[in-house]
Design brief:
six-stranded mixed sheet; about 240 residues; binds adenosine-5'-triphosphate; four-stranded antiparallel sheet; globular; 10 strands; alpha/beta
């Protein structure tokens, strides 16, 4: 793993919301094929880290590299075109549009019809339930189904790197397990994943490596098993 070039690198990235200094110089690297977890308490800056990779907000200092190219100065649509896709916290599907329309929106930057049709089939294979519901208004789906739709929509841009923000949020344990199984499957099919999760235990079981964030900074980084064995991290994020 360490001999491959990172797919994504953050070097001392800072981000602000007005006067709020949300990221205070975070550095991390994700290699092709990995699932990496980003864990930490509420307000630590995990969502901001994912958003800053996508250029919203744009880093106020530091650099983001994707596939060897600096992307920190690019607009979000250019970043998506490079192969990064975000599933935001709270899903943000379009409730008055159908499942199919939501999925189509995920491909709005693409014009390769055959590729889009192929990806739609792959998404229906991952989430058979979405195939049955193509004409249903997205707002009438359950929370778990909406999460599946949000992930499916993000996959429609055929990303090399998928950024997932709290996919387990608000879901019953059985659904959380299902979603995590599917995230593992997406990774096995070739997509690299950066996963932000409150459910640190599930995230660390799925990811090979993890970073821990505390108040805008990365305080630990390492193999998931090593992170799980750390007494302070166990006490703080894993319930002892
Ligand atoms: P959570 O798990 O609660 O989402 P998080 O680790 O993802 O937490 P962020 O949402 O990235 O943390 O928030 C980091 C800091 O930035 C917090 O202090 C938060 O209040 C602040 N913040 C986030 N979004 C905004 C915004 N749009 N405007 C101003 N401050 C913000």
């Amino acid at each position: 793993m360490s001999i491959s070039k990172p797919l994504l690198t953050l070097e001392e990235v800072h981000a602000h919301y007005g006067r709020v200094h949300a990221l205070k110089g975070i550095s991390l690297a994700i290699h092709p094929g990995e699932i990496v977890a980003l864990i930490g308490a509420n307000g630590a800056g995990k969502s901001t880290a994912l958003m800053a990779i996508c250029g919203i907000p744009r880093p106020s200092q530091g650099r983001v590299y994707f596939n060897g190219q600096e992307i920190s100065h690019l607009d979000t649509d250019r970043i998506v075109r490079q192969g990064i896709s975000l599933v935001p916290e709270g899903r943000h599907i379009f409730p008055r549009m159908t499942v199919r329309e939501n999925l189509d929106l995920g491909a709005f930057l693409r014009s390769d019809r055959d590729g889009i049709a192929e990806d739609l089939e792959k998404i229906f294979a991952l989430f058979p339930l979405l195939r049955e519901r193509t004409k249903q208004l997205a707002g009438t789906l359950s929370g778990g189904e909406q999460q599946m739709l949000a992930i499916g929509r993000a996959l429609m841009s055929r990303p090399r790197l998928l950024l997932l923000d709290e996919p387990s949020m608000g879901l019953a344990p059985l659904l959380v397990r299902q979603i995590f199984t599917i995230i593992g499957e997406i990774n096995r099919l070739g997509t690299t994943i950066l996963l932000v999760e409150q459910n640190a235990y599930m995230a660390l079981r799925l990811a090979s490596r993890a970073y821990v964030m505390v108040t805008g900074q990365v305080t630990h980084g390492g193999g998931s098993e090593e992170i799980m064995r750390d007494d302070v991290i166990r006490a703080t994020y894993l319930g002892g």
